[in-house]
């Protein structure tokens, strides 16, 4: 469904998968190694709950790291919804590799599918409006690349991947610098082109100061809907090119009223921090 979910290249992804496999395998899969000796077989992955599927190409890489003879065939495309009981992938090849890689592969897909599922619910609330949902840096350490991939598969847009992607002047930066104007002035001449400067604001006075000093993006943080609407009006009148982001306490109930204020983006950590894993299981035929 979504074209924004681009997987990290193999050179980036493979070391992560190797590390996670080593964590689980340790000095060897005692059960499988004692039980099997080269036998081949088939298995299905089955959804145990309704949801949006994400991460199947990553699961294929997990199995292929263990044995290149394994054929992992997704039955659904990334971002497609499936119901409980549906088969989402078919696998065939050496059974020892299937069983050894089962837990790591399933864990990844269940985690990412849970994120994609909740993301889709948020996105659908504002699907008819121009406002876009974006993610945050509130991600699980070590999983940011994949969690942000799942966000995109769910239909949202990725915010900065890390601190080096853009300048975001938050409340603590403002306090440390002695004000928004001072913060922007000190940063402006030290950052490389074409990094943008985003400023977090909590009231109309801060919005005015951010505009005065040429912020590229203005975040309206934890403002009421009425105050947000006033801020959007002032920003649009001053410079229609400035992008506006809303943030703070975004829920499935509040996201639409916030979007209706006219902001360009709504950022929320909820699809990551409040999502549940989408339960899947592997069944040997």
TrEMBL record:
EC number: 2.4.2.19
GO cellular component: cytoplasm
Binding site for substrate: 103, 136-138, 160, 170, 200, 221, 247-249, 268-270
Pathway: Cofactor biosynthesis; NAD(+) biosynthesis; nicotinate D-ribonucleotide from quinolinate: step 1/1
Keywords: Glycosyltransferase, Pyridine nucleotide biosynthesis, Transferase
Stored Pfam families: QRPTase_C (PF01729), QRPTase_N (PF02749)
Example of a GO biological process term: quinolinate catabolic process
InterPro entries documented for this protein: Aldolase_TIM (IPR013785), NadC (IPR004393), NadC/ModD (IPR027277), Nicotinate_pribotase-like_C (IPR036068), Quinolinate_PRibosylTase_N_sf (IPR037128), Quinolinate_PRibosylTrfase_C (IPR002638), Quinolinate_PRibosylTrfase_N (IPR022412)
Family named by the database record: Belongs to the NadC/ModD family.
Main function: Involved in the catabolism of quinolinic acid (QA).
Occurrences of domain Quinolinate phosphoribosyl transferase N-terminal (ranges): 29-113
Subunit structure: Hexamer formed by 3 homodimers.
Quinolinate phosphoribosyl transferase C-terminal domain sequence ranges: 115-283
GO molecular function, one term: nicotinate-nucleotide diphosphorylase (carboxylating) activity
Recorded catalytic activity of this chain's protein: nicotinate beta-D-ribonucleotide + CO2 + diphosphate = quinolinate + 5-phospho-alpha-D-ribose 1-diphosphate + 2 H(+)
Protein name: Probable nicotinate-nucleotide pyrophosphorylase [carboxylating]
